[in-house]
Amino acid sequence: MPALLYWRFNRRLELALSNHLGLERSKTPPIFLDTTDIVDPKSIATSGSTIRYFTVYETFRPALALHLAAPLLLEAGPYFRIKQVNFIENPYGSEPDYRLTDLGADAALKAWLGERVSLRLRYDFAHRWFTNYKARPPAHEPAQNEALAMNRHLVGLHAAARILRPLSLSAGYTLRLTQDNGGFFSYREHLVAGGASFELEDRLEVSASVGYLRRDYTQRTPCEAVADPTVPSGYTGSDCKSSSPTRLSQTESAIIANARVAVTILGWLQAVVSYELEDASSDLEDLLVPNHRILAGATLSL
């Protein structure tokens, strides 16, 4: 439910203020698992076990838009995001309820090439920290019992072309770099995607896209510290001699597809239904069937 405030100072400068509040109750199979302690990992795929959780999230974002010239628009601003995740059912019992907080800023430059083609270059930086979720340092470094924190950089290039009046095509590339204070979650990620959208008289919008994601972990080692609540630090270092270097994934990939239908009921009310598919795998093992999600909701513009 976004609450919007828009103010135009002059023909070149605009201010937009948005707040987005969302609730989600989800049931999903886990995508990537630490299966080093599971006797028969293949049994997970057929057991029917799922992770169920309830999420509340909110994003507050003021932004300034500057019209540099007729075909150029620069938009930039800070944002604050908070997300609370509570697990209803966790068959593996390893993930606690946690809260994620983001403090970041982004900037985007958009250019129009004629009346049909547009390009968008975006940069986004966020410092994110977790409550009730610990960092996981490698075993050769002392565990400090610190909460997990990350710095995330995102660079994206997006192109869109209007073929006919109601039909548009789009394609994009996104590079994401994440570094955390333990090293276990540090990664470099590439996402290539393309899609199409169809709009009918400002009442109906249908869109679909498909993409390929590849994530390479940059600091993950097979002898990371593991959680141990019986010791003061909260972690115990593992023994590299008893761990095979091939038992810890360094690369993950996924095919991601989605379809979305939005119907405008009133000028301020829109109904939305979407379907998402994620078929993920890793260089360690590929145990799971594709992940399917169906979402439905309403958007209010007040």
Overall structural class, as computed from helix and strand content, comes to mainly beta
What is the H/E order?
EEHEEEEEEEEEEEEE
Which strand order does the major sheet show?
A: 1-2-3-4-5-6-7-8-9-10-13-14-15
Cα(first) to Cα(last) distance is 9 Å
Overall geometry: globular
Tell me the major beta sheet.
13 strands, antiparallel
User: Uncertain segments of ≥5 residues (pLDDT<50)?
Assistant: 29-48, 241-246
| Counted beta strands | 15
Percent of residues in beta strands? over 45%
Radius of gyration: 22 Å
Overall pLDDT, averaged? 81
Please tally the helical runs, counting DSSP H or I stretches of 4 or more residues.
1
Mind explaining what this structure looks like?
The structure is a single chain. This protein has one helix at 42-47, and strands at 3-8, 13-28, 51-69, 72-89, 98-113, 117-134, 147-162, 167-180, 187-200, 204-217, 226-227, 235-236, 251-266, 269-282, 291-300. With 302 residues, the chain is mainly β. The strands form two sheets. Strands 1-2-3-4-5-6-7-8-9-10-13-14-15 form a 13-stranded antiparallel beta sheet, with no helix packed on it. A two-stranded antiparallel ribbon has the order 11-12. The model is unreliable at 29-48 and 241-246 (pLDDT under 50).
